[in-house]
Amino acid sequence: NMRPIVACILLLMATLIGSWSVAKTRRELRKQLEKASEAVGYEYMKVEGFAVPGLLHRFKVDNVDEKSGRIEASVNLSYVFVNPFLRWDPDVVSNITQIEMDSARLHRPTIDGCYR
């Protein structure tokens, strides 16, 4: 009887097609969010109440110059911010609730204008 094997193959095909479809949806969503970020730019930071809460994970003094009092330090900082223009309805995009994006493609808050 081939029915269980055929059913298994059909289920596997449906799973693969579903995975491919979600992956494609993810790629399209990412593209749309990148376009939205480009179109909006830094405008979202002008919204009343905009804030960037951060957390300092590591602070290491690298060098102290006793003559000038200059201190060089290394820090590791993480922060969270909300861009209200980068939202979507998960029901419309395969129940995707989170997505990874290239940070270079986003307009993000800078700390003292410096990024490396």
Automatic annotation (TrEMBL):
Gene3D superfamilies linked: Neurotransmitter-gated ion-channel ligand-binding domain
Signal peptide annotation: 1-19
Protein name: Uncharacterized protein
Gene Ontology molecular function terms on file: extracellular ligand-gated monoatomic ion channel activity
Organism: Pristionchus entomophagus
Cellular compartments per GO CC: membrane
UniProt keyword annotations, A-Z: Signal
Transmembrane segments: none
